[in-house]
Amino acid sequence: MEGLSVVVALVILVIITIGMGVRIVPQGSKHIVQRLGKYHSTLNPGMNIIIPYVDQVPYKVTTKDIVLDIPSQEVITEDNATIIANAVAYINIVSPEKAVYGVEDYEIAIQNLVQTALRSIIGEMSLDSALSSRDLIKAKLKEAISDDISDWGINLKTVEIQDINPSATMQKAMEEQAAAERQRRATVTRAEGEKQAAILEADGRLEASKRDAQAQIVLADASREAIERVTRAISDQELPVMYLLGERYIGALENLSASDNAKNIIFPADLPHAIKGLLNR
Questions:
Q1: Which site from 62, 208, 236, 249 is most exposed, i.e. has the minimal number of CB atoms within 10 Å?
Q2: What is the pLDDT at residue 24?
Q3: Longest dimension (CA), the chain
Q4: How far apart are CA 18 and CA 20, in angstroms?
């Protein structure tokens, strides 16, 4: 009975030993093998054989793309404006042994590296440039950290700027600045409109004055022509002239009597003599 127990124990030990010596690595992963505490090899996906009790697998590394969320942080621009920026980085591990032995925690290391580079890049830009140059920031950020993380056996596939916005204080200041600018533009537009209206009004008065002057010249020419024609027609005959002047004289007196200020109108008793007086005869 005791012999049977020993055999069973040995069988179990053999099974356990064989199980420890066979390593199945899933697709998308690689395992790091240490032999007696020292790096020995990297196991690829599939079935692998290691030496039980001597070899150990302390690290299991994924070879799939890793998404690193870079936390938001305050960044000071070149013109001392504060903005809030965060990013996301896509990496994959191409050399697992470098990733696990090259840095204590590669995810935290890359996050800190991206944040530091982001502060440095935006710190050399003005506020307006930082808010409108995401592609430029992305390119500089990728260029700044790619070489550093490649030493850890990690490839930076891309890095994207998620949000880059002014801080709450800056947003309030920008809103006030925008409101002031809109008010200034409204004032300029209103003043420009009033100026154009005044110019148009002056042009209108000038044009009207020119036309009035032309009309007076035309009337004067017409009066002169009329007088010349009347002079030629009546020659030295006094009676038609007296008739015309008398007619206009009476018409003028009628208009005068129709005015609000007129009370009494007295016609001269000797109208022909009065007309002759007008003719100085």
A1: 236
A2: 93
A3: 178
A4: 5
